[in-house]
Amino acid sequence: MNISLLDFLLALIASSIIIFGLILAIVLFLKKSGNRTSFILLGLLVLVASLVLIDDLILLIGLPGQFNQLYYLPLDFGLMMGPLQFFYFKSKLRPAYRFKGNDVIHFLIPSVQIAVLLYVGFSSVSFKYSVWQNGFMDTFLLVVSILFPILCSLYGFKSFLLLRKDIIGKKGWKNQLHTWLTRFLYVLGVLILVQTLFLIVKPLVISAQEVLSYLQFTLLLLLLLWFSIKAWQQYFPQLIYVGPNLNKTNTLQYIAGTEEDIFKKKTEALFGQQQIFTNPDLNLDILKKEYGLSRRKISEMIKTIYGKSFVEFVNGYRVNYVMTALKNGEHKSLTLLAIAFDAGFSSKSTFYRTFKQKTNLTPSEYLSNF
Fold first, then answer.
1. CATH 1.10.10.60 fits 250-367, yes or no
2. Single pTM value for the model
């Protein structure tokens, strides 16, 4: 293999970022707790972006010219990014949403791209040469490069509408989630701008195409790095729900009384007034920012004062939320599962198990009383 020093250094740097993205995708796939659907969708997004960069790197440093079998590798599935990003937003903003049959239509065009690349990519070198000679792949790749910013723009706009429709205001954690998701849209906008700009400029400046290709790849690599870092925050939600707009509990630190009294008052503010338990990502790391106490101290205080573990304590509030909603007749306009997810539950099984433990009734049996 013969590559220049510049290409070697670029490949070394790019490989480290791409490997980080691939490892992160696997970590997200294996995440057991929380909203599994959102983790899988985000993992797929990171995986697709990483594979696209691998394909771009192979082409940029000229490996197909030395190893003909590397032509048209089935790696660039970029058209999947728009729909995946949209459904990821949907899973975060509407946890009760489940895929429907007509959702398949969103993946028809990306599926055509995948099918063609898989067929050509695993074909013989002679076949790859023939589709290059007759211009089929040139035309196909040009169409894909045009469709990419179009589809990303379309699904980016649909995601923006989802954010607009989602209710913001009473729950500080929801505002933080919106801020975090909005940054995703900003990066998507930059990605669309970069791809559109180079799609227009590169054919016009033929003499500088190589330089432009390096510049384009570098910008995309930086976007992947930023995107991977933001996705890493999804694995540790306490990195998302931070900032002065979360919950204004800092004023409570001056409350007089015993340690238990202060803890009870803060708990009432967080769980009673602000309903922080409705955040499906709630964990002790988020609460320690609110109480100003360590994770261990919060667990001990909950056990001492309320006689429950942290998980039992939080889920107790969530079950009460569901019971109140059912008494108020919300089940007439919302499904039972939608109410459960609105209460902060992240899975159907956890909701049913917890509800029966607290009431000795299944949610359906409880609902039959109304």
1. yes
2. 0.87
